[in-house]
Amino acid sequence: MTTDDHQLARELADLAGERLLAVRADLHAQGVEGRDLKDAGDAASQELLAAALAERAPGDAVLSEEAADDHARLTAERVWIIDPLDGTREFSEVPRDDWAVHVALWQAGELLAGAVALPARGVTYGTDPSSLLDLPARPAGDPPLRLAVSRSRPPAFAEELGRTMGATTVPMGSAGVKAMSVLDGSSDAYVHAGGQYEWDSAAPVAVAAAHGLHTSRVDGSALVYNRENPWSPDLVVCRPEVAAELMAALATMDLG
């Protein structure tokens, strides 16, 4: 890994974000919406990222939500794990801003670099050591744990976690936005127990870990990427000072 890997992840996420904003504005002005807008965003971002990776990292493999899975990645030294548009529903609901672009680099069993762009907010979070941010302080007075959850599909366990820990829920869109909400201080934890693909979490986990957040599966074990089946059962991203209490509470719950 080099500093260039961090920079490339950020540059790719930013370029894809710019393309998505342009596509969204142009097609929305033409009255395109719903599934057609989602598909156009997915295709445009995938096209840009695929071309950029082929040019900038020609020897690396790619695992993308929007491309056929080439199992050559399983023996590759370096693999880019990308989600060209995380939160297609939110992207199609103009002017919502809770959607993202994910770009992560995996090598030898580890996530080495990554970036999560929130284009409609004009913000990109990355793993470059020079751009790491201090975690905002929690509100004073030991407030209830704030749990980032899906606006449209809040998990059933959130209610139980609320009873167990006195947690409150903060509804929002894409997985990347939820994970980054812990980093920007608008939530304290993001717990996902319904399963998701590696491209949904690789870049958010890389960025969260680089900033000192706790990242793991719900049983506390390490998250593993570039597996033959890229399905991840569960995920926890949280502030380090709430990790022990949160993981203890999750251990008592049935998350199936």
State mean pLDDT (0 to 100 scale): 93
How many whole angstroms does the radius of gyration measure? Answer: 18 Å
Distance between the termini: 37 Å
Q: Class of the largest domain in CATH?
A: Alpha Beta
Low-confidence spans: none
Q: Counting H and I runs of at least 4 residues, what is the number of helices?
A: 7
Order of helical and strand elements: HHEEHEEEEHEHEEHEEEH
CATH topology of the largest domain: Fructose-1,6-Bisphosphatase, Chain A, domain 1
Which strand-content bin applies to the residues?
15-25%
Cofactor: Mg(2+)
GO molecular function, one term: 3'(2'),5'-bisphosphate nucleotidase activity
InterPro entries: CysQ/Inositol_MonoPase, Inositol_monoP_metal-BS, Inositol_monophosphatase-like
Protein name: 3'(2'),5-bisphosphonucleoside 3'(2')-phosphohydrolase
Characterize this entry briefly.
By secondary structure, the protein is of the alpha/beta class.
Fold and architecture overview:
- It is built from 7 helices and 12 strands.
- It has helices spanning about 5-30, 35-55, 90, 155-165, 175-185, 200-210, 245-250; strands spanning about 60-65, 80-85, 100-105, 110-120, 125, 145-150, 170, 190, 195, 215, 230, 235-240.
- The strands form 3 sheets. A 5-stranded mixed beta sheet has the order 1-2-3-4-5, sandwiched between helices. It has a 5-stranded mixed beta sheet with strand order 7-6-8-12-10, with helices on one face.
- Strand 6, helix 4 (about 155-165) and strand 7 form a beta-alpha-beta unit.
- The longest helix is centred in the first third of the chain and has 27 residues, at about 5-30.
- The model has no long low-confidence stretch (mean pLDDT about 95).
